[in-house]
Amino acid sequence: MYITCLDMEGVLVPEIWIAFADATGIPELRRTTRDEPDYDKLMRFRLEILKEHGLGLKEIQDTIATIDPLPGAKEFLDELRSFTQVIILSDTFEQFAQPLMKKLGWPTLFCNTLEVAPNGEITGFRMRCPQSKLTTVKALQSMGYDTIAAGDSFNDLGMIQASKAGFLFKSTDQIKADHPELPAYEAFDDLLTAIRRAMD
């Protein structure tokens, strides 16, 4: 019995923070988990910049409303869900993800939540659990599932390496170079084929 676990940003949809950086003209916000392995450090850095510029949840949600899934992502997910259970494991937040999940046909998503003041200021964030992707994969395995995982960033490596089969998808040259043992793909069709093979 298999469950396929996918990262969201960079794999199925564009990076939200990069889109927001472009929309606001704040280049520092382009920094993502592809650049910074420590997610807690990354989020605190982002919240400081938001505060400094007087930006809150509404401004980010306005940008998210303009984001569409990557070309072919919904078709890939639809096909994948026709032969295996799929969970999207993301370090994003409920307040960001909902409109994107709608565009992807409401797949199952495990993510985190933001702490937001009445005036819309993002004051903090609550992670579901430590190392949420790896912890979730291990929990699924403890229930008798074999996991297959794919992602693009540092924070995906734990779940990819712990799974029966794991793949890098649309990752960086540096991560691919650091982990030559992990098959790396750029096209949804190739990833779909690899997942099918892993389940045979």
Helix content: 40-55%
The N- and C-terminal alpha carbons lie at a distance of: 11 Å
CATH topology: Rossmann fold
SSE string: EHHHHEHEEHEHEHEH
On the 0 to 100 scale, the average pLDDT is 95
Give the oligomeric state of the chains in this entry, treating copies of one chain as homo and distinct chains as hetero: single chain
CATH architecture: 3-Layer(aba) Sandwich
How would you name the CATH homologous superfamily? HAD superfamily/HAD-like
Strand order of the biggest β-sheet: 4-3-2-1-5-6-7
Shape assignment = globular
Overall number of structural domains? 1
Number of helices: 9
Q: What is the gist of this entry?
A:
This protein is an alpha/beta fold.
Structure description:
The chain has one domain (2-15, 67-199): 3-Layer(aba) Sandwich (Rossmann fold). The protein has helices at 16-24, 39-53, 57-64, 73-81, 94-103, 132-142, 157-162, 173-178, 188-199; strands at 2-6, 85-93, 108-116, 122-126, 146-151, 165-169, 184-185. The model has no long low-confidence stretch (mean pLDDT 95). It is α/β, with parallel strands linked by helices and 200 residues long. A seven-stranded mixed beta sheet has the order 4-3-2-1-5-6-7, with helices on both faces. The chain contains nine helices and seven strands; from the N terminus they run βααααβαββαβαβαβα.
